[in-house]
Write a structure and sequence with these properties.
7-stranded mixed beta sheet; 14 helices; 12 strands
């Protein structure tokens, strides 16, 4: 018999993917350049030339058996060392290769991290607004995801609600900064307070509470924004990273877990993750991509277009009377809809070929997400359409 749990999930398909697929089909009718598709967070800038050169060099000058063979289950040792060294250079940390586990993107990193530090029945807390895929990432491990209500004033943490929900059942707290969907970056003050609460509760409850920090947007931070390295605030931190956004390589599926060297069992967590891979088949990320990334480990694509796009959209939203917190990074913005039902709001927007994502599944009903990783020229053209939509539908 087909697994009924996964069969039931067919009725709960990702709204982001549904809207993206709609935009693609609509584009076939009217030309995709005329569909203002803000649905999918797919990087819109090319990967670095240095990465392309690295790949060409490996293909032309390396042993084919080596670059196309299976990687070790924990990742290629030289690559793990390269990641550790990069973190140490950038953040003044003391990682070693043994603290790095290579994964298939940040999704693979979170999948391993949750399994590593929870038992079935444990609770994992996350903060609204949150990436909807956290629900299956966590719940399919046997742990249970609990969502702390949002602080909609600035989308930093709602600490009152958090402390109420932080019971002795909680084994891990899953955070995402810079945040998808709000674009907000947790400040040093927020992280200091969060770490202090977790440290006190660990002592009170007599067991570890791990922080799983999901950081695929770490490099997309805007001018003047306080964007600290999370693991510097709390010893029991597992950092989950992806090169999908920094190097514009989402299709290559490469990332890592970095275990804070001061964490409980820090020296064996990567090895445990290797055992977890045996059970979920989420193992041995591509050897050639690991090697190519390690050669350009501190490079990023030209990410400046995202700040340009953000400012254009933010200023227009404010002009049109939207309630919106200005993003500090990522390529998302998260306004409040102009009516209570954000789904109805986004359906009306579709009539103008504006593809916006309602935020019920992000834990913030009444809000919507715009992924502005599109060409700036298209952003500019969309602003007049957005203004027309708002004026015709809402009289603003």
């Amino acid at each position: 018999m087909i697994n009924q749990q996964f069969k039931a999930m067919l009725s709960g398909k990702s709204i982001i993917r549904e809207l993206s697929e709609y935009a693609t089909e609509r584009g076939k009718e009217i030309g995709y350049e005329n569909v203002f598709d803000y649905s999918l967070g797919n990087p819109s800038v090319p990967c670095t030339q240095s990465f392309t050169d690295s790949m060409l060099d490996l293909l032309q000058n390396s042993d084919p058996v080596s670059i196309h063979g299976y990687s070790p289950s924990l990742g290629i040792q030289s690559v793990r060392k390269s990641v550790a060294d990069s973190l140490n250079r950038r953040f003044g940390t003391c990682y070693d290769a043994k603290h790095i586990f290579m994964t298939c993107g940040a999704a693979g990193a979170v999948a391993h991290a949750v399994r590593c530090v929870t038992q079935p029945g444990d609770e994992v807390l996350t903060f609204a607004p949150f990436f909807p895929e956290y629900t299956p990432y966590v719940n399919q491990t046997g742990a249970v995801l609990k969502v702390v209500p949002a602080n909609t004033e600035d989308f930093q943490i709602n600490f009152d609600a958090f402390e109420e929900m932080l019971t002795d059942k909680v084994a891990a707290v899953l955070i995402n900064t810079p945040n998808n969907p709000s674009g907000i970056v947790y400040t040093s003050g927020t992280l200091t307070r969060l770490a202090g609460i977790l440290a006190r509760k660990q002592e009170e409850y007599g067991h570890d509470i791990f922080m799983i920090s999901d950081e695929p947007y770490r490099e997309i931070v805007f001018e003047g924004v306080d964007a600290p390295f999370v693991a510097q605030f709390y010893d029991n931190t597992l950092t989950c990273y992806s090169f999908s956004k920094s190097l514009s390589l989402p299709g290559e599926r490469i990332g890592y877990i970095a275990v804070n060297p001061n964490a409980t069992d820090a020296d064996i967590i990567a090895v445990i993750c290797g055992q977890i891979s045996r059970g979920i088949g989420h193992n041995c990320p591509p050897s050639i991509i690991q090697l190519a990334v390690s050669k350009v480990i501190d490079d990023t694509s030209d990410l400046s277009v995202y700040e340009t796009n953000m400012n254009l959209i933010y200023n227009k939203l404010v002009e049109l009377g939207f309630t919106v917190v200005k993003p500090g990074g990522t390529f998302y913005i998260f306004p409040k809809a102009l009516e209570d039902d954000a789904n109805a709001f986004c359906m009306k927007a579709k009539q103008y070929d504006l593809i916006l994502v309602p935020a019920d599944n992000f834990g913030c009903p009444g809000y919507f997400r715009m992924a502005y990783c599109i060409d700036t020229e298209k952003v500019i053209r969309s602003l007049d359409v957005l203004e027309k939509f708002v004026k015709e539908q809402y009289g603003k």
